[in-house]
Inverse folding.
DNA sequence: ATGTTATCCAACAACATGTTGACTTTTTCA
DNA sequence: TGAAAAAGTCAACATGTTGTTGGATAACAT
């Protein structure tokens, strides 16, 4: 364990941070497709060539940023393994919404009209795997296709919830949101109004 | 009424059709951002300049295609104005899923990882307007923010449902899907499994 | 048959891209 | 502290896409 857990070079941190800031700003102004590496590095006040040391293009950069969020997601599910098994969704949801809150700005742009559909699908995939795996373990193999529909509806629906939440600057607390999501999933979205 | 309702030039129809076909194919292979006008027109076997007679760029083309689908959506809501007022969602949903089925391929790519987030938001907007307007008429002005969350959840959720459906090549009938959606919205998505 | 319109073709400048090599600055670590 | 390693700067390059143009040709409507 020489330098495994060593923090990365300060310059690298600085560069990554500046690029991420610049990207977040630009994504609020225009669609991803219209963001050029040139203007991105200009806004971050660095050389254009530096960008290519880290990312292939703007979309690749977004993917990498998403990666970090999904790592956080994995960590949450690892911590709540018992809750998943016992179908205790609320504690998981609270941590999940906390993660969202920490990455508020990025989530807002990723779910915005200028956002990234792939983000939604990665989310869908993760939730599907995490939950479905435990369901299979508990109840044996599945028979019909209702599960696919259930998960697609639930995950996309939660994404919609998150979208609305971050666009209100996360006014409601994470606990409130977890309760709201849980209620919608269990009793139906109409039950909240 | 000289030539108001006259069909457009046969050449125009042909060009539009060829371009749409080519786009649909390409969107299955790669992300929108990687689709160039050059390769699009090559696949459609026509001059590059012709493309610019109709669309500003590839994203503009997608918007225009979406426009047609949303016109169909408007027509459906116009036909079911009584159902909206009486909260009879199922008949509307059936027609809605029929519309989806007609535009199966395009819906699949628009909701795919390579898809268009703006499509989701336009959908959200339309449903919000159509339904919420009647709610307001019936029940007077709204007080709290639960409606926003409800609609975001419901519309995004339905989008997830549609996504799963078109990826199964619309195996289930429109009636089945309408029932499924209605049930999820009213009794909760967990009720289907 | 005739005028109108859509498409084709070639060519153009403008721009973003991705990569390179040499140079400077910062960080690491012994 | 000093030398090696790594990160970033800068200028330059070939390449490909873009959006637009003017004139020729073909397809269409009446």
């Amino acid at each position: 364990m020489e330098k495994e857990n060593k923090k990365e070079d300060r310059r690298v941190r600085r560069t990554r941070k500046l690029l991420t800031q610049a990207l977040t700003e630009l994504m609020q102004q225009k669609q991803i497709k219209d963001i050029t590496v040139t203007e991105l590095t200009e806004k971050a006040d660095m050389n254009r060539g530096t960008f290519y040391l880290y990312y292939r293009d703007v979309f690749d950069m977004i993917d990498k940023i998403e990666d970090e969020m999904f790592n956080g997601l994995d960590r949450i599910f690892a911590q709540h393994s018992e809750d998943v098994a016992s179908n205790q969704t609320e504690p998981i949801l609270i941590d999940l919404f906390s993660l969202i809150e920490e990455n508020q700005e990025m989530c807002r742009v990723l779910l915005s009209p200028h956002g990234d559909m792939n983000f939604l699908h990665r989310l869908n995939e993760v939730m599907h795997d995490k939950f479905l795996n435990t369901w299979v373990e508990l109840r044996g193999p599945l028979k019909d296709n209702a599960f696919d529909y259930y998960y697609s509806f639930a995950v996309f629906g939660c994404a919609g919830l998150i979208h609305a939440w971050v666009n209100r600057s996360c006014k409601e607390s994470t606990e409130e949101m977890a309760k709201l999501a849980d209620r919608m999933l269990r009793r139906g979205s109409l039950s909240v109004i």
Observations:
- Residues 3, 6, 9-11, 36-38, 48-49, 52, 56-57 of chain B lie near DNA strand D (CB under 10 Å from a C1').
- Confidence is low (pLDDT under 50) at residues 1-5 of chain B.
- The two ends of chain B are 56 Å apart (CA to CA).
